Amino acid sequence: MAKLASLGTPSLSLDLSLQSGQAFHWVREGEGWIGAIGGQAVYLEQRAGELWVNSEGAAAARDYLALDHPLEAVHASFPQDPTMQEALRFCAGMRILRQPAWEAVATFITSSMKQVAHIAQISHTLRRLYGERMEWGGREVFAYPKPEVLAVLEEADLRACALGYRAKNLLASARLVARGEVDLEVVRALPDDAAREELCRLPGVGEKVANCALLFGFERLQAFPVDVWIERVLRERYFQKKRKVTSARIRSFCATYFGPYGGYAQQYLFHHARLTWGKK
User: Fold this and answer.
1) Domain carrying residue 268
2) pTM of the prediction?
3) Which residues of the chain have a pLDDT value below 70?
4) What is the tally of structural domains in the chain?
5) Residue 171 CB: number of other CB atoms within 10 A?
6) Residue 218's Cα: distance from chain center in Å?
7) Which residues pair with 136 in a beta bridge?
């Protein structure tokens, strides 16, 4: 085992944070996890609350795991209703990962109508075929392919990665980003609504995917993606006595009810529902 560095005992559930449908490429390695943060191979392990990382990946891991997010304040901001508090107990310690912007945008373009396991399979295939190869502890690790790399491919190349109709959208989006027609650094500087509108210029990016990208790739912690799981939670737990509730009404409710850390609330509700509601 290569030398590891301690990042202390932050308020963090490493397993929850890496396995909650935010990122899709981390794999088990011994007692920990191995993956890529940008162009850095990183090994992460948590023992009795203490967080360990390969020394060369320490700075990247600290930033990626958002150890500076005020988790106590985040939790205190959540509504006190039973559904939210149940999700909080289930997901305590989960942090919203601070992912590279293009990786978040591209990954969620490929996520449309896919289960988490399928999204992970696509991510690993794209990384292995077109991403930068790295190594740690004798294990290969691959970065997510840059837009410039994907932009020179053909749609058939991406369809061979099991993307289906998403191949056309990912390819067109990669070309727009590679040419600078949609500049993700410009998006980063825009207010939330303008940033969402700019992202929606990319093929395959509607409001839900744009909100996922804003939350996981641009650290807009109030962004509240509404997918089928979240809509089910909202309709059954928050609008159960109202039969006709429009999607616009749901979006308006989410924008105000869940507060300044609505993205955290959404992720807790999503992960709790995905792992428990399907068993009911």
Assistant:
1) 71-89+223-279
2) 0.94
3) 1, 278-280
4) 2
5) 24
6) 10
7) 139
